[in-house]
Amino acid sequence: MRLLALTVVVMVAFAANSVFGRMALVNGDMDAMGYSTIRMAAGGAMLALLCMLSRGSVALGGEGRVTGVLSLLLYMAAFSLSYVGIDTGIGALILFGCVQITMFAGALISGERPPFTRWAGAAMAFGGLAWLLWPGSAVQVSVFHGLLMAASGIGWGIYSLIGRKAKDALQNTGANFILATPAILIVWLLVGVGEMTKQGVILAVLSGAITSGMGYALWYAVLPKLSATTASVAQLTVPVIATLGGWLFLSEAVSWSFAMASAIVLGGVALSVVPRQRGLSHS
Description:
Layout: H1 2-26, H2 32-55, H3 65-82, H4 88-109, H5 116-133, H6 143-163, H7 169-191, H8 198-222, H9 228-234, H10 237-250, H11 256-273
Helix pairs in contact: 1-4, 1-8, 1-10, 2-3, 2-7, 2-8, 3-6, 3-7, 4-5, 4-6, 4-10, 4-11, 5-11, 7-8
């Protein structure tokens, strides 16, 4: 029960990232790059504190660091820019679907030979995402902002692929957040600092320090105790929770078309993580 409770907390934290971002950006409390910068800095500070408390130091070096930092920057920047013009649940669904598709592609490139169910699931999820983003479809989505969120998902997917090889996930994530903060700050200053309200800063700090920093740390603590399939299926709840949050806190409507597209994407991801049976004794 304790493991289940911790897993639920992590999934709510991940969904809250979408809700916080949408709340800050749709109300004009923060410009997109400013939100990303403060979120990154707050996440880096929290992860650095956790590393110091649990490891005694923060190691900034390591294999794949440049790629990790760049993919994290892509995820953070595109995430905030997309939520300027896309609803919470739709954004979370596109993000989650693209993360899974990117990781599937990464597995292929690395030489894995997935079973038919994973091919079918990936195709199904891709079809649902295409329906969401297709111009003139029944689901009203800004194609530009949808593609930005897709780019964010690709960035996080690459980041996750690199992170799977890390010997210490907490140290690895902490180092990436810390090193990415000056880079995203420079970008923010170059594009121009926009309006910033107290509420926007609070939401960015909450997203960075609590639902990102502490959320990722808790996830890495829970993840070794879950099977790969259970962990993947658990993440299917994130877009659903984010949609509920958008409805409760932002009065965002949920159409039947979006519900159907969601079912296709999430069903495809679920199909792709079902373990292949190895005979009747495992059925």
